[in-house]
Amino acid sequence: MTTTATSDVISLRGITKAFPGVVANDDVSLDIVPGQVHCLLGENGAGKSTLISILAGMQQPDSGTVSIGGTVVDISSPKVAVDNGIGVVHQHSTLVPAFTVLENLMLGDGGVLLDEKRATRRLEELAGLLGVEIDPHALASDLGLGQQQQVEIAKAMWKGSRLLVLDEPTSMLTPQAIEHLAESIARVKAEGLAVVLITHKLREAYAMGDCVTILRAGRNVGHISTEELATYSEQQAQDAILAAMFGEDIVAVGDEATELAGATEASRETAAIDFASRPVRLELRGASSRGAGRDVDVEDVSLTLREGEILGIAGIDGHGQNALSELVAGQRPASTGTLVFDGDDITRSGVRGRQRLGIRYVTDDRLHEGTVGSMSVAVNLVIKRIGEQPFWRSGRIQPKAVDAEAKRLIDEYGIRTPSPATRAGTLSGGNIQKILLARELTNGARLVVVNKPTYGLDLKTVHLVREILTDFAAQGGSVLLLSTDLDELIELSHRIQVISRGRLVGSVVNDGPGTAEKVGQYMTGAIEGTD
Amino acid sequence: MKTETSSALVQGFVRSVVPVLLALIVSGLIMLAMGASPLDFFAGVWRYGITGSNWQRSLALMSPLLIVAIGIIVAFRGQLWNLGYNGQYLLGAVVASGLGPILYAVMPAFLATIIVFVVAVLAGAVWSLIPAILKARYGTNEIITSLVMSFIAIGVVNLLIKGVFKDPGVTTPQTTVIPEDQLLPYIPGTEIHIGFLIAIALAIVAQIVLSRTSFGLRIDIFGASPKAARHVGLNSTWMVVLLFAISSGLIAFAGSVDILGQFTYQRADWDPRYGDAVMPLVFLARFRPVAAIPFVAFYAVLATGGTLAAQQAGLNVDFLFVIVGLILLFMTITEYIGNRRALGQSYVPAGLRRTVLQPFTRTSERTSA
Amino acid sequence: MSEMLSATFITVFIATVIAQAMPLMLAAVGETIGEQAGILNLGIEGVMLIGAYTGFVVTLMTGSFWIGMLAGAIGGVVANAAMLVLNVWLGLNQIVIGLAITLIGEGITSVLYLQNYTSSPASLGAQPRMPIPGLSEIPVIGPALFRQSGIFWLMIVLILVLAFALARTSWGLSTRSAGQKPSSLDAAGGSVMRTRSTAVILSGVLVGLGGAYLALLTTATFSPHLTNGLGFIAIVITMLSRGRILIVMLTSLVYGLAVAMGPALQVIGFTVPADIIKMLPFIIVIVMLIVFARSSVVPPALGAPYTRGAR
User: Fold this and answer.
1) Where are the transmembrane segments (chain B) (predicted)?
2) For B307, which of A45, A46, B82, C182 is 20 to 30 Å away at the CA?
């Protein structure tokens, strides 16, 4: 079994796919050529993932065809995709955490008995090709994110592949791990495989891609061929891509466009503050958390957050960000250490007590934690004040008062909902995030913990959310910003601390170029060894 | 807006009544297959469940059924599957039948009745602690733990009836019969004990608490997502323990009401399994206590009339469980078809079409020129 | 007590342990396969009863224990068909369907039995024995272990084969992934629906066999509510064993031991109330649940219907 590289071009013609209320792909056509890296660019919701699902056989197009070397192929299931040599690395891991690397790779193999020997050989072969080392007997859940991704790539190429699709592969990687990935991609390309790389960061497209296709609102709005891209300077490529990505919106978004599209190195946008003159709002002294689940807990965390400051917490997903947020919000008890808020010890107070003091928490799990989808927008907006006046009187709900408050917040934050009585679960992700921000920042907020505040949102909402946070800080509010998006952290934070395996491993003052590299060094130094 | 709500009401009605009708039709067919006459059976249900003064017996049966239903609703609303109802009911019953005679001998009936009720509720609540704490602390599946505790409760109750609570005057293991004047009084002019009124009142109170108060909203949030509940600041451990305690306390209360109002004593190995019968009904009532009243009334007639009618039709009373099981099955199917229709989708999910309807098409690759 | 008597006593004791453990073992292995594939079947109490009843009736009709066992397996598959269609194919609530199967299984077997056999209660008589030459001559344990029915050996082989298959074959890997993370199986080109369907059918075979074993070999008769919660104990055993079939076998033997204690104590002269003997397994199980609460891990996707693309 070897990697099959053929000169067959994979052509998508007139792919259209509609979901209730939204056309995800609208007459998209493009060609994927072996030996080239084809970048698909576009903001969240532009239809990149749908297009990939169609290639992977997870979705079927309403109309349009996929053909390989001129033969039309009906990719009716993932099996057909695999059989045709289309390997996909999905944005969300498809590894079974409780399985070993080898078991994960053998899943889907034919035959009656599991052939470990053959699988081990194949893994060695692919590891050599990718230039990585993978322990075949490690549990998938024990692997770091970068290694998991390497296994995913090996899995995508397992049965001999002609096309490797990578869906947002860089979104959770450190700058150093992104370099590793770029090397692996180059090796795969050199083997003669076609590669489709999906990203919403323009500079990655330019750095890794041979040609670029831009999607906006489900349509193919621009293509830069290999020849064009080769002749363009970086600036020319950037201008062409930006124009396609934003269309008329480029005027509205203005200068933000380059940053939102990840075209340039990010730099801080928030006004500088004089740390010495600002009183300390929150202080954690050697705090450790104690959670019930298998989530990573924080250990011995000390930090100070001042009035009007945005403190960023950088780190790879799942390294204790949830524990830290919940520790501050009061959702998770501290096993050791103390928390001091405006000079008072709050270690023992619960969620509601801290809520009244002005400590708020915008969770990253908007759908299942932050809101109750089956309940109305209005109820969701007052859900943290259950039983309090004027919304409840002697235990009974006061619909008029709830409605009035809901209308006020809906107007103020521009939440797009048919009515306050609409079920929250039916709104878009962006509007649900606005519900969360409206609820948390109202009624005497002094400190807000925000966890991945723009994850999965469209660019306009991303822009709005960041504005809301900077405004909040400018008015004296304190923000603890946890994010996996390094650019976001650099744009918003005054200082950035790095979390790894539940500990804070480094602190960087964000006052000039080079922050990203320093943060990245802390991240890799602690996780993947210094290399 | 108005037509929308009325059509929603019609739809809700259809979704609730259709499963019952289908279950009755299919159970009729099963009876035919077994050589029994469904017409005789259903005529018998009508005769022994409604006509004459039989409706009064049906209403009397409603009181334990409805209280059990409310107990189940409280737990299910919080997404806690308390399936230990049979044991909890018997625990409450044995408090009344065993402790009752002792108390009535030494104090006024009114006071003794109150004490019996309180002890019964406490017994039920305490019995639910193990499933509740295991669920809250370790996330252990409460279905299994509450069921296992139920089997243990049944054993404990039988031991008590054969042991300390046994009436020494009779040979069969049973408790002392409580005299007429110490039982719950009848509603004047009828032979329905006031447990019926207690049950109806409880249903109304539960309805208001669940739908209009902050406590009800807290239960609903907890039921919708324990994560959201924690986020809002609810203490989930406390919530699980409290809901389980209320639920099984109410079910035990139903047992004590049933003994003091209806049965007057308790035999060993007696288990009416009201909870199994009521469980599908609370789904049909969409976990609303007041909406459960008509369903419980229906089942009370079916059970009251069905016991005699089944014997006459040559069947065993256990046939009622077949009907109840069928109601559950048809309920899920009706719900499924209703949801699919509402969304305008095909009745058959895409995955099923692919896998089951063409299970032998190995190559799904179709090439065209 | 003479030496002969105590030897016979131990022989009977061991035989009782095995007779009590086998139905549970089969049911729990069946439930394990279902749970590994992501299906929590609360209906196995009903499935066991249906398997027991069909096995009983067919054995009475044909006079063959082997055909009776086969009928039990078929009965189990038929009873599990509701779970297959409504849950695996249509994605409806497993808990509700499971309870419905239990209620219908209990109701229908009880009604049918009382309608057909109350006038002349039927017993099946002695099971066919298949003494293993040589080994069955070993004193004390020989008669207990090696003079079992051929059915016993076939069941043991079946369970061991399944234990091996779950761990070492592509089928086993697919089945486990369907319970761990069905989207992975789907993405790898497997079919979640086909894998889960196979698991439910196989689970029906084993649970049905468990019921039939209980009726034919353990009690040699049928009676309404024969299982008396055994199906639920099988679910607990499955939870505690975390999908490892060898552990299922061991814990089932512990159960058999607990049940065999009652009559054994009786022989030695202690009278234990029947209610305590009935309760004992449940008490043991709840104690095990309390002690091992932390480690009763179920597959992450247990109970969740799979729809492609839904996260």
Assistant:
1) 12-35, 55-76, 88-107, 113-134, 143-161, 192-211, 232-257, 277-301, 313-333
2) B82
